[in-house]
Amino acid sequence: MNHADQLSLPLGRKARDAGLAQTASKNTEWTIANLIALHLFVARRGNCEFTMEIFRGERQLRNTPAPSSPHAWGALTTAAHRSGLIEWTGRYIQASSKKTHAHPVKVWRRGPSTKGAS
Questions:
Q1: C-beta separation of 38 from 55 below 8 A
Q2: DSSP-derived secondary structure letter, 49
Q3: What radius of gyration do the chain's Cα atoms show?
Q4: For residues 25 and 115, what is the distance between their CA atoms, to the nearest angstrom?
Q5: CB–CB of 69/91 below 8 Å?
Q6: Other beta carbons less than 10 A from residue 24's beta carbon
Q7: Which of 3, 27, 106, 117 would staple 67 via disulfide (CB 3.0–4.6 Å)?
Q8: Residue 8 predicted with pLDDT over 90
Q9: Per-residue pLDDT at 117
Q10: The model's pTM
Q11: Alpha-carbon torsion, ordered 73, 75, 76, 79, to 10 deg
Q12: Element (H, E) at 13
């Protein structure tokens, strides 16, 4: 792979999509269960904004089994966003969990597919 390939946006998107597909295929049951849980979480919150870190913390408090890879959380978020379950507010905040070292995380809100579900 040459330097130009390493800086190719189309190749980067292709690699991202392949990684998401691979992660999702290895965590199908986990993803389905957590999409259902996220739908209920979003409906309960109404118009309140949230981070996926908050949802993940709630799932951990409920002793939900962990996915086979931590990348499954990203695949879950992507699936929820693409389906209209959640939408990005356009804002970031610093993560609060120790493991994430305060890196920026997206702030989400209820998506168009759940607007009538409060």
A1: yes
A2: -
A3: 15
A4: 29
A5: no
A6: 18
A7: 27
A8: no
A9: 55
A10: 0.82
A11: 160
A12: helix 9-26
